[in-house]
Specification:
The complex is a heterodimer of chains A (257) and B (405). With 257 residues, chain A is an alpha/beta fold. Chain A has eight helices and ten strands. Chain A has a six-stranded mixed β-sheet with strand order 6-7-8-3-9-10, with helices on both faces. The longest helix of chain A has 16 residues. The N and C termini of chain A lie far apart (51 Å). Chain B has 405 residues and is an alpha+beta fold. Chain B contains 13 helices and ten strands. A six-stranded mixed beta barrel of chain B has the order 2-3-8-5-7-6. The chains are: A alpha/beta (257), B alpha+beta (405). The interface between A and B is medium-sized, with 27 and 26 residues.
Chain lengths: 257, 405
């Protein structure tokens, strides 16, 4: 089942058809895509283009109706619900538009969450040590005890990124990660993504904003369930340079709770 | 297995909603507390009645004069005059296993001493009476079989009678006038308290039954005979033989009703405790309803919680939770609430019944079995009412759950 070692994601003629009552929605109509280790791909398209459906398939939240999906060389197209859950836990990290942090729960406990569903049982001390290390790496040292309501949007998204990274995933999947953030904070988050990517982490990011997609290395544009354009980013933006150009809306650190 | 982690997850979720968790558990606390307290009070009442029955004496058979086909012992106090002294003597002589017999001649009359008088119950008995009733004297000495044979003018009085007539004076050796006949007080009984029927058992004068017949009631028949057998195993056969003996002595032909009633202590106890058993059952059932209401409260909260936490469930599934992990988490949450509620409810129930027993003077009896059953039931309530919401949560589709607003 193993493919060539450089492709971490390989889609072969993937279709996804939804049935809602009598209606059949052909959301993805045959997408073949290869993403190599260490790439930073922005998946773009208008709403209804099939990018979200493709993202669900890539994130092992959904199975393709037909076609093959090789993740890290293993075919995951026909795995059971529980097997997919284990794949998500071990090989994938998710970052969502609305952060999806557990409310009234400290940043540390939010980051520990994937470890609780992992194969290995860790002691409280081990959980804490690993969570704090990852929180530190996204610049949240000293905020381990803060609840989401006490953190700014950018900080909440950093917690979510830390949660996605805790199991050292093969691929980081981000679904509109800057959709709920102002432009200054968005660039900061892109800075974190670029930094992670420079360290070798593969990132697939869904966005409809061209200026956010410009931080990626490769842009894949979908329309009507098909890939219409797939090209490397020519004038790539570097977040560390851009961040100075946008004035912060406010101080960003604005505890609410 | 990652059950340990699931416990951690569930406890963290409960801790996040402290107030809600506490209020949900409160339903179970009250339900279990009510069951424990109500059953405790019911059992206490039953134990009290049983203790009163036991105060009649051990292995006692009572023979009442007069036929009672109607229910109950009390209507049997007829005094139809069918029991004779010779009947009692025949029982004493002929029925094996009988260890003591006391002929009873009761009457209610005015008694006096000095310038005091008092209306009380006067019992004529044999000298065995104090053994049968297991009723020792606080002071003085009982009358003897010789006093009975000679119909001597002696008596033993109860604590209530003593204080009503003699106040703080020592009654021993004093003279009590009953129907203008002077009786010498030989002794005072220890207090026995209220009977199962609520009568003050200490408001009494006890004298030889011969004296009672001759000088107080004027009759020649016995109203009842108190009989004690040596061993509990003799109770049934002795009772049968007494019936046969009395039928023969009274010339009752086969097929005719007895002109006397024989009851043993177990029958009396059963009749008396039947009411309290019904009461215990009723109280327990009412309390059980509140436990079920508490369970429905848990189900309600868990269902609301599943809806409210749909995105959370989606997030958990996205980071690798299996459906089973979610199911277990919600079940643990429900069972923890009900189990903690159950434990606190047991404490509350014990406290409530103790307070009631002190404040209202209701006896309460909390058995270990009722505590264990209450706890098991509360845990079962958690599983039963937690399962449906937990299963609903575990079957959510992660994509839909993540998008849920």
């Amino acid at each position: 089942m193993t493919d060539n070692g450089t492709s971490v994601v390989k889609l072969v003629d993937v279709h996804k058809i939804y049935r809602s009552g009598e209606m059949e929605v052909h959301a993805v109509r045959g997408v073949s895509l290869e993403i190599a280790r260490g790439e930073f791909v922005a998946l773009m398209g208008a709403s209804g283009s099939g990018k979200s459906t493709l993202m669900n398939v890539l994130g092992c939240l959904d199975r393709p109706t037909s076609g093959r999906y090789l993740l890290d060389g293993h075919d995951v197209s026909h795995l059971s619900r529980d097997q997919l859950a284990d794949i998500r836990n071990q090989k994938l990290g998710f970052v969502f538009q609305n952060f999806n942090l557990l409310p009234r729960t400290s940043a540390r406990e939010n980051v520990e969450l994937p470890l609780l569903y992992g194969k290995h049982h860790l002691s409280n001390a081990q959980l804490r040590e690993r969570a704090d290390r990852v929180l530190d790496s996204v610049g949240l040292h000293g905020r381990e005890e803060h609840h989401p309501s006490q953190l700014s949007g950018g900080q909440q998204q950093r917690v979510a990124i830390a949660r996605a990274l805790i199991n050292n995933p093969e691929v980081l999947l981000a679904d509109e990660p800057t959709g709920n953030l102002d432009s200054h904070t968005s660039v900061e988050i892109m800075g974190i993504f670029q930094e992670l990517n420079d360290r070798g982490i593969t990132i697939i990011m869904v966005t409809h904003e061209a200026d956010i997609a410009a931080f990626a290395r490769r842009n894949v544009i979908m329309r009507d369930g098909l890939v219409r354009s797939d090209r490397a980013v020519s004038k790539r933006l570097i977040a560390s340079q851009e961040v100075g150009k946008i004035a912060p809306v406010d101080d960003m650190v604005q505890p609410l709770g | 297995m990652r059950l340990g982690s699931t416990f951690k997850v569930a406890f963290r979720a409960l801790r996040r909603n402290k107030l809600r968790s506490a209020l949900t558990a409160l339903g179970i606390i009250i339900g279990v507390g009510a069951v424990i307290a109500m059953v405790g009070i019911g059992s206490g009442a039953k134990a009290q009645v049983e203790a009163q029955i036991a105060s009649l004496g051990e292995n006692v058979i009572l023979v009442f004069s007069g036929s009672t086909t109607a229910s109950g012992i009390r209507t049997g106090w007829g005094g139809a005059g069918t029991l004779k002294i010779e009947d009692a003597e025949a029982i004493r002589r002929e029925v094996p296993g009988v260890s003591a017999v006391s002929e009873e001649v009761p009457s209610n009359t005015q008694i006096a001493a000095g310038n005091q008088n008092w209306f009380t119950r006067v019992l004529g008995e044999s000298a065995d009476y104090f053994d049968i009733r297991q009723w020792p004297l606080a002071e003085g000495a009982p009358f003897t079989p010789q006093d009975v044979r000679s119909a001597n003018k002696v008596c033993i009085i109860g604590k209530t009678t003593a204080s009503q007539i003699f106040g703080n004076d020592d009654p021993i050796g004093q003279t009590l006038r009953i129907k203008n006949v002077p009786f010498s007080v030989l002794g005072v009984l220890i207090p026995k308290g209220l009977s199962a029927q609520g009568l003050d058992q200490d408001d009494v004068v006890i004298m030889p039954y011969t004296s009672a017949m001759k000088r107080v009631s004027g009759g020649t028949t016995l109203r009842n005979i108190n009989i004690q057998v040596a061993n509990a195993s003799d109770l049934e056969p002795a009772q049968q033989q007494i019936i046969a003996l009395l039928r023969q002595r009274h010339n009752i032909r086969p097929g005719r009703d007895d002109d006397f009633t024989v009851r043993n202590q177990q029958e009396i106890a059963q009749a008396a405790t039947a009411t309290t058993e019904v009461m215990t059952g009723l109280l327990g059932a009412i309390a059980g309803v509140s436990l079920v209401v508490g369970g429905i409260g848990i189900m309600n909260i868990m269902l609301v919680s599943v809806t409210e936490r749909t995105r959370e469930i989606g997030t958990r599934m996205a980071v690798g939770a299996h459906g089973r992990d979610i199911l277990t988490q919600f079940l643990i949450e429900a069972v923890s609430l009900s189990a903690v509620g159950g434990l606190l409810g047991i404490i509350l129930g014990i406290a409530a019944s103790k307070i009631l027993s002190v404040w209202k003077d209701w006896p309460s009896l909390i058995s270990p079995s009722s505590i264990i059953i209450a706890f098991m039931v509360s845990a079962a309530v958690g599983i039963f009412f937690g399962f449906y919401p937990a299963r609903t949560a575990s079957r959510l589709d992660p994509i839909d759950a993540l998008r849920y607003e």
